[in-house]
């Protein structure tokens, strides 16, 4: 379940784990379960009862629709892209990515397999907005992913996470208060919202090779703004099993579970569907 959970981490259940046996799982929740090989495992629920699942080009498609991860889930699974070429001035930072971006992972340097190109990549920036007095500042942020651009207005002083990118076939963007520095395992600040501020079909052409964030003028003459940090991230790239199966039909008592590190995970791609009764305890959101 790396990078969200690593060896030595302590994960907590919800407030009343005794009731987990009787509650229905939600998509994206992490659960402990009794795996078919009789080992207790932690996996993320991706497919729910009575759904049709397909893995195509690294994306998970449920009932004909590509599943788009919310910001909170992306913050648990995103992996930094390295190396990148960084170009910056006082008011902007531009990142040039390798072409293509592969699904190698920094926490498994000895992994040996054929690497796959990843289409879903983006940028996470921490913007520090300073203001004085009662008048709240506003700062215009322009973020560009390839040839897709979005403008976000930050209306309060403090540190803000700004996250944009191509994700699961759509162009996404959002911002939230960032109390913790960027640069932990998943490369996105914690505390992301449940929904994207912007979610529209991807209109870019070709691979994403450039990312840029630019700061516009502040409405507060006594304030200021700083681009504190910028990193490039990539999404999970789901790998099909060696059997070549890419489609699953779930029954009324089945779920489909996957690990967050597809190259190292044994999950429903190998076991098949998992009965609801094998789920044991739901991990608390943000557990680490």
What does this protein structure show overall?
- By secondary structure, this protein is mostly beta strands.
- The chain has 2 domains: 17-68 and 239-282, Umud Fragment, subunit A, CATH 2.10.109.10; 71-234, Jelly Rolls (Sandwich).
- Helices cover 4% and strands 40% of the residues.
- The protein is built from 2 helices and 20 strands.
- The chain has helices at residues 71-77, 268-271; strands spanning 30-34, 40-47, 52-56, 59-62, 65-66, 79-80, 85-88, 92-96, 121-130, 139-145, 148-154, 158-167, 170-177, 198-201, 210-218, 224-234, 247-249, 254-258, 274-275, 279-282.
- The chain has a 6-stranded antiparallel sheet with strand order 6-16-9-12-13-14, with no helix packed on it.
- Strand 1 and strand 2 (40-47) form a beta hairpin.
- The model has no long low-confidence stretch (mean pLDDT 87).
In short:
This protein has helices at 71-77, 268-271, and strands at 30-34, 40-47, 52-56, 59-62, 65-66, 79-80, 85-88, 92-96, 121-130, 139-145, 148-154, 158-167, 170-177, 198-201, 210-218, 224-234, 247-249, 254-258, 274-275, 279-282.
* Mean pLDDT level: 87
Task: Using the CA coordinates, give the radius of gyration.
Answer: 20 Å
Write down the overall geometry: globular
Number of helices: 2
Beta-strand residue fraction: 35-45%
Low-confidence stretches: none
Structural class: mainly beta
Number of strands: 20
Q: What top-tier CATH class of the largest domain fits best?
A: Mainly Beta
Oligomer designation: single chain
Q: In which range does the helix fraction lie?
A: under 10%
CATH topology of the largest domain: Jelly Rolls
Q: How would a textbook summarize the main sheet?
A: 6 strands, antiparallel
- Which architecture of the largest domain would the CATH scheme give at its second level? Sandwich
Strand order of the largest sheet: 6-16-9-12-13-14
How many domains? The number is 2
Instruction: Give the N-terminus to C-terminus distance in angstroms.
Output: 11 Å
How do the SSEs run, as a string of H and E? EEEEEHEEEEEEEEEEEEEHEE
């Amino acid at each position: 379940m790396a990078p969200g959970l690593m060896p030595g981490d302590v994960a907590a259940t919800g407030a009343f784990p005794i009731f987990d046996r009787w509650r229905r799982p939600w998509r994206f929740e992490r659960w402990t379960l009794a795996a078919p090989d009789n080992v207790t495992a932690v996996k993320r629920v991706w497919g729910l009862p009575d759904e049709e699942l397909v893995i195509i080009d690294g994306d998970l498609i449920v009932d004909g629709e590509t599943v788009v991860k919310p910001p909170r889930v992306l913050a648990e699974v995103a992996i930094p892209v390295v190396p990148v070429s960084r170009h910056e001035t006082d008011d902007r930072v531009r990142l040039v990515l390798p072409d293509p971006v592969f699904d190698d992972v920094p926490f498994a340097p000895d992994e040996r397999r054929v690497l796959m190109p990843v289409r879903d990549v983006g940028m996470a920036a921490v913007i520090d907005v300073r203001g004085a007095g009662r008048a709240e500042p506003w700062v215009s942020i322009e973020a560009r992913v390839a040839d897709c651009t979005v403008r976000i207005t930050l209306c309060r002083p403090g540190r803000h996470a700004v996250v944009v990118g191509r994700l699961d076939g759509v162009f996404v963007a959002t911002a939230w208060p960032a109390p913790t520095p960027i640069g932990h395992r998943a490369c996105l600040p914690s505390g992301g919202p449940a929904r994207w501020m912007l979610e529209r079909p991807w209109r870019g052409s070709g691979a994403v090779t450039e990312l840029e964030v630019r700061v516009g003028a502040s409405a507060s003459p006594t304030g200021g703004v700083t681009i504190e940090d910028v990193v490039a991230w990539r999404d999970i790239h789901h790998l099909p099993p060696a059997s070549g199966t890419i489609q699953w039909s779930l029954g009324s008592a089945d779920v489909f579970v996957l690990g967050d590190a597809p190259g190292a995970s044994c999950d429903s791609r190998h076991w098949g569907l998992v009965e609801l009764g094998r789920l044991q305890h739901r991990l608390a959101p943000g557990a680490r």
